[in-house]
């Protein structure tokens, strides 16, 4: 089976379920977005969180996707940067416990934290303090980190550091890897559209985008956006929430349905776990349709729990569902 390595912000998610969205307005966080925050804003959020019930989990878009892949038994690795603190050790321990080849670098800054607000409708909003994660630089990366893998999965949240991303991609390409990019957030796409367009057009093989990200990237609705993105890379995926996903490779186009869910608890990691399922299918050599259906199973399950950690019995059920998909 092909192996996948992720490159991303090593963040610990601190999740809180909201009764209403008042705190989002209070903190100046647009619902459904990811906003970078400073230490002052982090302290304000922590003060509010201290009065609420919170849940701790490893996070970061690429980290979530790699954790999902590892939970299915895929060969995985992860490159990121943490602080020499309890949260950094928590992140490293979680990688090791899930048999993920950890390539974590350490610095003196505190580990990154994603304060995650879960609205009553399940939508999640992030106030992200990058901390140590933001210090991952081009000079930290070597070609040895990528040797032995087939795919590099990059989260769009990293694109602000143009030098580091280009260096990572060029090293991975030199080592023979295919590049997968998740566009991450509509506001990230809007703020760095020219550079993201360059990446997709010249380097990226597989693009994951949700409906809002695809529109920010192309100015088009999902079906048209799919065609635009597919003309720039090998495989384009546009996720459309409860309506499923569109996938296109060359002239082949697939529409996969989302699985039925009684209650959406928290959409954190839904896109990341779709990517995990899709890439798992790809590493196994399955058809685009089966890859997308496996992605739908994972994303449909993770939105039924708070955060991205699912219990063993849920993973056992997921694997049974995947076996059913494979046998069809």
UniProtKB/TrEMBL annotation:
It holds the Pfam family PfkB. Gene3D superfamilies: 3.40.1190.20. Belongs to the carbohydrate kinase PfkB family. Residues 50-311 form the Carbohydrate kinase PfkB domain. It comes from Bacteroides sedimenti. Keywords: Kinase, Transferase. SUPFAM superfamilies: Ribokinase-like (SSF53613). This is Adenosine kinase. The keyword Lipoprotein does not apply. The keyword Ion transport does not apply. GO terms for molecular function: kinase activity. Coiled coil: none annotated. PROSITE patterns: PFKB_KINASES_2 (PS00584).
């Amino acid at each position: 089976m092909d192996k996948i390595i992720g490159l991303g912000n090593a963040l610990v998610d601190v999740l809180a379920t909201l009764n209403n969205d008042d705190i989002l307005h209070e903190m100046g966080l647009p619902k459904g977005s990811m906003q970078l925050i400073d230490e002052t804003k982090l302290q304000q959020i922590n003060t509010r969180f201290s009065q609420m019930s919170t849940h701790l989990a490893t996070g970061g878009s690429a980290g979530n996707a790699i954790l999902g892949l590892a939970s299915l038994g895929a060969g995985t690795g992860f490159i990121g940067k943490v602080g020499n603190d309890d949260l950094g050790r928590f992140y490293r321990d979680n990688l090791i416990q899930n048999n993920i080849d950890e390539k974590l670098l350490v610095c003196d800054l505190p580990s990154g934290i994603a304060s995650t607000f879960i609205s009553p409708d399940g939508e999640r909003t992030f106030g992200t303090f990058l901390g140590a994660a933001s210090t991952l630089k081009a000079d930290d990366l070597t070609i040895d980190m990528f040797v032995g893998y087939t795919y590099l999965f990059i989260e769009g949240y990293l694109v602000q550091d143009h030098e580091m991303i280009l260096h990572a991609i060029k090293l991975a390409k030199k080592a023979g890897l295919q590049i997968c990019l998740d566009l991450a957030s509509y506001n990230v796409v809007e703020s760095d559209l020219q550079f993201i367009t360059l990446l997709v057009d010249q380097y990226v093989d597989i693009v994951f985008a949700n409906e809002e990200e695809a529109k920010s990237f192309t100015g088009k609705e999902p079906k048209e956006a799919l065609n635009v993105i597919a003309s720039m890379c090998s495989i384009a995926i546009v996720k459309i929430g409860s309506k499923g996903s569109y996938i296109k490779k060359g002239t082949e186009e697939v529409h996969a349905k989302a699985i039925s869910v009684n209650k959406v608890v928290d959409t954190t990691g839904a896109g990341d776990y779709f990517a995990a399922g899709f890439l798992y299918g790809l590493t196994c050599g399955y058809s685009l349709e089966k890859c997308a259906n496996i992605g739908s199973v994972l994303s449909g399950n993770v939105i039924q729990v708070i955060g991205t950690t699912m219990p063993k019995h849920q993973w056992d059920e997921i694997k049974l569902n995947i076996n059913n998909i494979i046998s069809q």
